[in-house]
Each structure stands twice: as structure tokens, then as C-alpha cells.
Amino acid sequence: MALHSPPARTTNDRAHVPAGATPMPTTAAHEESAAAPPPASAARGVLGGAFAVLEALAQADAGLGLSGLARASGLAKTSAYRLAEQLVGLGAIQRVDRRYYVGARVGRIGQQWQPDPLLRRAAQAPVHTLAVKSRAVASLRILHEHRLHMICATMPHGHACMPNPADPESTARTATGRVLYATQLDGQVALSEAWTAREWRQLRDSLRDPGATVVDHQEAFPGICCVSAPVWRHNGTCAAAVTVLLADTKVPPGLADLVVQAARRISAGLG
Question: What domains sit in the chain, N to C, each tagged with a CATH number?
Fold first, then answer.
């Protein structure tokens, strides 16, 4: 019987496979490559672009057209359009008359955000008690990106919703805003120009008194008075401001003491 030598391997053959290993068919290799996820850098780029679009729309109450969206997000117009339309399909953005707005889905997700879950847990009972005793709206709020954000609140029956200032200057005129701005660490946040640097220093010094409160006599909203006090952590930083809001032209006696008591209860709960 004649013996035949195996054909010589050319440079176009598959790569060398170690002994005992099972070579992968060429077609399977192509399929695996096609199914592989995009590189992490590419995924981050797409996510970054999508968040740039959402951030731009979050600052535009009147919505943005495509050109405005591209400028505000820093994206090319084609990229802004592609991402915006994908987000429209997901319900994260809504399109009305060729203008884009934040969508309902993002709103629902945002409502679940809790800046400080432990703070909320410590504050719920004291804030509720404060509302019952004062017969007014009581809340605990923090300052985040120059805006007041609610941690928790209790509104007695028959009371309207709490007004929310629209800009940093308006925020700084409220009792809550003054407490939160004045108790920030030096350099941590830029102080509002609603008050002078000297006025901020005086307010900061006064708030170190254990029974200190800030009272707003209709300075922020006509017909509404507020009393607010800082909630201190054990490390000496301000965690939040507890506030009572009432629709009246003057603050009743004893209300400031109730606010201070609630602030102390919350501080103790943070321990």
C-alpha cells in the first residue's frame, strides 16, 4: 500500500492549536466576535452622550430644538438627534412640536431619589410631630446644587403645597436657604449674593448657638412666614434644615422652640 504524506501547511492556515485543545471553527469565531459587547470606552461614550442630552433638557423649562440641544449638550447635531430619538422611544424624553423635553419616565425615576436615606429615616417621626404640634407644614430639606431638595415633609389637612424657590437668590431669601447656605463649610459652596459676606458671617456665627433659628417674615413669599433651624451631625457639620411654614403675617410664640426641639431629635437619631 502506498503511503501519502500530508499536504504542507501554508501561511493562510489557521493558527497553531496546542495538543489536546479543540480548535474553534472559523464560522463560530466570527459569530462570537459579532455577539461580543462593545468596548467599555464606547459604552461609556454613549451613556455620557445620553446623560448630556438629559442634563441639557433638565435646564430648559421651555424645551430645546435640535440645534439648541446640540449646543447645550456639546454633541454634534447628528449624535444629539440619534440619542434624543432613542430616548424618546424609551419614554425618557418627549418630543412636542419639534422640541424636546424631559420625559415622564425620567420624572418617575427621579422621584425615587433619596439624597440621604438615613437622614430621612431619622427625621420622619420628629417632622410629623412638629407639624402636628405647630398645626403647620413641617419639612426637612437639604441644599443640592443651589436648590432645596425635600427629605421628608408633613402637611396637615387643608394646607396647600409648599412653595419652592426657583433660583439661588430666591432660595437664599428663605429661612431654610439661609440656614443651609450659612452652615456650609468654607469653600464647599458659593454663597448667594442675596446677602453680603459680612451678613453671611454674622448668620453663621449666630447659628452656632444651640437654640438658634432663622425666621422669614414674608421676605421670600408674601403672606408666608417660616422658622428654620439647622440639624447638626455629631462631627459638627450641618446635615439639613428643619422648617415650619405657615400662612400668616406673624410667627406665633413658642414656634421657634418647637422647631429647635425637632432639630435636636433628628440630630440624636443620626447618632
Answer: 44-110 (1.10.10.10), 116-270 (3.30.450.40)
